[in-house]
Amino acid sequence: MKTRAKETALPDTAADAFQLEDFLPYRLAVASAHVSRLFTRNYAENFGLTIPEWRVLAVVGRFQTLSPSAAGEWTAMDKVKVSRASASLVSRGLLRQSQDPSDGRGRLLRLTRKGAALHAQVVPEALALEATLADGLSRAEWVSLNKALAKLNTHCAAIAATGEDDEE
Amino acid sequence: MKTRAKETALPDTAADAFQLEDFLPYRLAVASAHVSRLFTRNYAENFGLTIPEWRVLAVVGRFQTLSPSAAGEWTAMDKVKVSRASASLVSRGLLRQSQDPSDGRGRLLRLTRKGAALHAQVVPEALALEATLADGLSRAEWVSLNKALAKLNTHCAAIAATGEDDEE
DNA sequence: GGCCCTTGTTTTCATTCAGAACTATCTCCC
DNA sequence: GGGAGATAGTTCTGAATGAAAACAAGGGCC
């Protein structure tokens, strides 16, 4: 455009006009990083929890009893991450892990009394932080953001699935 | 106390009902991780670029000449990340770094011919991948997602700013 | 019983990140 | 003009994260 004559005369005007800040993956990554940092700090400072630990706590608190693999599905974490997070929670007396009586390989996760108390304390806090975020948007925007993200997630999962098939 | 009653008005009932998958920070983190992985793979396999490198490339390509600190602002990265990314780009002959004649501390980033060629090649690819993501949503959903994320970003920045003031 | 699958834990190695230290330069102000 | 302090960038450090594979222990099916 302006200095086009100086350097290359390539037909890449589209590339020159590219604005990173309007690029959805960028926006998404930045938003997620912002929000994650907000939550990480809050969980770490007030409860000594990492995000994986918080997720396991949340999902076990919801289902009372859960296998690690089921926890992994609900929290979108792989088994390694679930294993580490629950080991940490167990070591702090927040979670109890027992054998699955119906399957020798399986384990069952369950909150201790202490873990349940923490859960009851953390959830409202998380919702409050979420509400703080929601304050920046109108109700309609908030709802549509949630819907769009949910849809994007399923769409990404679909893309990733087809990608795996193609590879190799 | 498993499912003692369907609904009691106690605070911990709210905690029991908490669904991680409807929690916006969770949705956002999962979506961002999905999308980031998609792009990371693509950039790495096809162009040998990491995401920070791609961001620097994009923003320098747009402004022709840019200081590292300005690049950091445009890419939402700290100076350390910019420094590493540009060092890597320089070492591969994609970027040139020179002294700022008006300030001995400052540097100026600028694409080499090779870097400009890569830029012209990567941007359409990125837009194509973005379009693939957009395919999963209606046009209106896509637009509102973008708007909502932009708004969320500015709101987060505001929250973080006030947080910093309070601390210590 | 033998073979292969699944569940879950642990290890390893490379990458990543936040924080702080460090170099060099500029600006302000005495 | 010369220090104190701020700023631009780079480098270093230790912790966290990730992917991938090794490993242990059971289960299911022939």
How would you explain this protein's 3D organization?
Two copies of one chain form a homodimer. With 168 residues, the first copy, chain A, is mainly alpha-helical. The first copy, chain A, has two domains: 21-136, Arc Repressor Mutant, subunit A; 137-168. Helix content of chain A is 67%, strand content 10%. Chain A has helices at 13-16, 24-47, 51-63, 68-75, 79-91, 113-134, 139-166, and strands at 65-66, 95-100, 103-111. The first copy, chain A, has a three-stranded antiparallel beta sheet with strand order 1-3-2. In chain A, a hairpin with a 2-residue loop joins strand 2 and strand 3. In chain A, helix 3 (51-63) crosses helix 5 (79-91) and helix 4 (68-75) packs across helix 5. The radius of gyration of chain A is 22 Å and the shape is globular. Chain A binds a DNA duplex (30 and 30 nucleotides) through residues 50, 67-69, 78-84, 87, 100, 103-107.
Helix content of chain A: 55-70%
Helix count of chain A, per DSSP?
Answer: 7
Round the mean pLDDT of chain A to the nearest integer and report it.
87
Biggest sheet descriptor of chain A: 3 strands, antiparallel
* CATH architect. name of the largest domain in chain A: Orthogonal Bundle
| Percent of residues in beta strands of chain A | 5-15%
- Counting structural domains of chain A, the number is 2
Give the N-to-C terminal Cα separation of chain A.
42 Å
CATH class of the largest domain in chain A: Mainly Alpha
Quick one: CATH superfamily of the largest domain in chain A?
Winged helix-like DNA-binding domain superfamily/Winged helix DNA-binding domain
Alpha-beta content class of chain A: mainly alpha
Q: What is the N-to-C succession of helices and strands of chain A?
A: HHHEHHEEHH
Oligomeric grouping of the chains: homodimer
Residue stretches of chain A low in confidence (pLDDT < 50, at least 5 long) are 1-10
* Biggest interface between chains: A-B, 76 and 76 residues
- Tell me how many strands of chain A there are: 3
- CATH topology name of the largest domain in chain A, in short, is Arc Repressor Mutant, subunit A
What general outline of chain A do the C-alpha atoms trace?
Answer: globular
The Rg value of chain A, from CA coordinates, equals: 22 Å
> Within the largest sheet of chain A, what's the order of strands?
1-3-2
